[in-house]
Specification:
single chain, 234 residues, mainly alpha, three-stranded antiparallel beta sheet
């Protein structure tokens, strides 16, 4: 997709500083727009197929204008619908592949040798550096990087894999007192990472204020509250 990016001029920045509500209004429109795009491209894809088909023509048109080689355009054209993978934005991506020192290989790697890569068609290309950008398993972010054990020996990673991914309000789990996590299951509000973080921090702020009000030092979500959550994410 095209990269629509621009900065705010000094007068506009001064306006935001003097009238903070103006900045919040702009923020609301940008966030709402992104959330709406996420809804129609992912959550309600089947109801907006024609809209997504139209959106798919945008990057295809950009590729057609930037890449004149029909075979190269074919290789660059995804074989899945818009929204099936996270869309990327760039105004230089397509043009990069038209440079004489850039070559797009889509036949797949047969093996990696000490001095190069052999593709499935038997061609060997000698390399100086190999960069592996293989993506990630989105659920891995919900697995702690270190072993986390709560009350009664409950292991968080093992428990989530055996009892589905879950977290109360996206931040807390039963049997783990004084333990909060960011971006856990049920945490995502849509596409904006900033909204996710801000909403979670507001929830934590309410929690800590209540702890201070009661003069307590320990908190823990109950299993009753956890089990009352909707099961739409199972």
């Amino acid at each position: 997709m095209p990269e629509i990016d621009f900065g705010f001029s000094p007068p506009v920045q001064r306006l935001f500083a003097r009238v903070p509500v103006a900045q919040r209004i702009v923020r609301w429109f940008t966030d709402t727009g992104m959330e709406f795009m996420m809804v129609i491209a992912m959550w309600k894809f089947r109801y907006f197929k024609r809209v997504n088909m139209a959106r798919r023509t945008c990057p295809k048109s950009l590729g057609f204008l930037a890449v004149h080689d029909s075979e190269l355009r074919r290789k660059l054209n995804p074989d899945y619908d818009f929204g099936c993978k996270r869309p990327t934005s760039s105004n230089t991506y397509y043009r990069t592949f038209t440079k004489p020192h850039v070559h797009l290989e889509t036949t797949g790697i047969e093996r990696v040798e000490p001095d190069g890569i052999v593709t499935r068609d038997g061609t060997k290309r000698f390399i100086d550096t190999l960069v592996l950008a293989t993506g990630f398993d989105v659920w891995d972010v919900n697995m702690p990087a270190i072993e986390v054990v709560g009350r009664e020996g409950r292991n968080l990673g093992k428990w989530r894999r055996e009892n589905r991914f879950q977290a109360y309000e996206g931040v807390s789990v039963p049997y783990f007192p004084n333990f909060l996590t960011m971006a856990s299951p049920y945490a995502w509000v849509g596409m904006s990472w900033f909204d996710t973080v801000e909403y979670q921090m507001r929830h934590m702020n309410r929690l800590f204020r209540e702890l201070q009000r009661r003069g307590l030092r320990t908190f823990e979500v109950t299993e009753q509250a956890q089990c009352a959550l909707p099961r739409s994410h199972d």
